[in-house]
Amino acid sequence: PLRSNNNPYASFGATLARDEEQNLWSTPHDVTHTEADDDRVLYNMIVVRNQLDTDSEEWQKLNYDIYTLRQTRKEVRSRWKHILEDLGFQKEADSLLSVTKLSIISDSQNMGKAREILLKLSEETNIFPTSWELSERYLFVLDRLIALDAADEFFRMASVVYPKRPSGERADDSQKATQR
User: Fold this and answer.
1) CB atoms within 10 A of CB 176
2) pLDDT digits over 25-84, tens only?
3) DSSP helix/strand/coil, 163
4) Name one Pfam family in it (predicted).
5) Contacts of 63 (CB under 8 A, 6+ apart)
6) What is the DSSP string of 19-33?
7) What is the DSSP letter of 125?
8) Where are the alpha helices (DSSP H) in the chain?
């Protein structure tokens, strides 16, 4: 006789795959992704990749690009988390970094200052990789830091922990220069 499948895990793989597609930020089940421009870029790459034959060279290249983008995002997020923890936000770091479609800017007057600090972070520190396009999600994070009166301190810490170096100069070169 035909009986219904009562296995609660039967659709588990399908759910994981669906979550993987919906999660555009870094890891599966990461609820923090927003419908920001960088998410749409990644989403479009996933859609195109899924229409290709998995044995094809194009599929492999796109799959690598998707993986690389996710790894870069994870790295940036961990840099931010590191600084937040150094500033004493150990318990709050994850919630400060959590940005969802429901996130709002607490005070519209903070938006200008948040943009200004985000630009300074990208120009004067190495917290973002060189190829990084400014991410809207970090405006929300900076808005929260402004509300906590910690944004300027965050920038100072980022400047120390991730200093901008002239291209081609390594960390040990600049330390030797300061020791002379």
Assistant:
1) 10
2) 544 445 555 556 677 788 888 889 999 999 999 999 999 999 998 888 889 999 999 999
3) strand
4) MREG
5) 49
6) HHHH--SSSTT-TT-
7) B
8) 12-22, 37-50, 57-86, 93-97, 108-124, 137-147, 151-161, 171-179
Residue of 152, 155, 177, 149 whose CA lies nearest to 165: 177
pLDDT tens-digit series, residues 121-179: 999 999 998 877 777 889 989 999 999 999 999 999 999 999 987 655 544 444 444 44
Query: Is 144 within 8 Å of 106 (Cβ atoms)?
Result: yes
Q: To which residue do tokens 């959590």 refer?
A: 98
Count of alpha carbons within 13 Å of 87, Cβ hemisphere only? 24
Owner of token pair 């402004």: 146
pLDDT at 133: 77
Length of the chain: 180
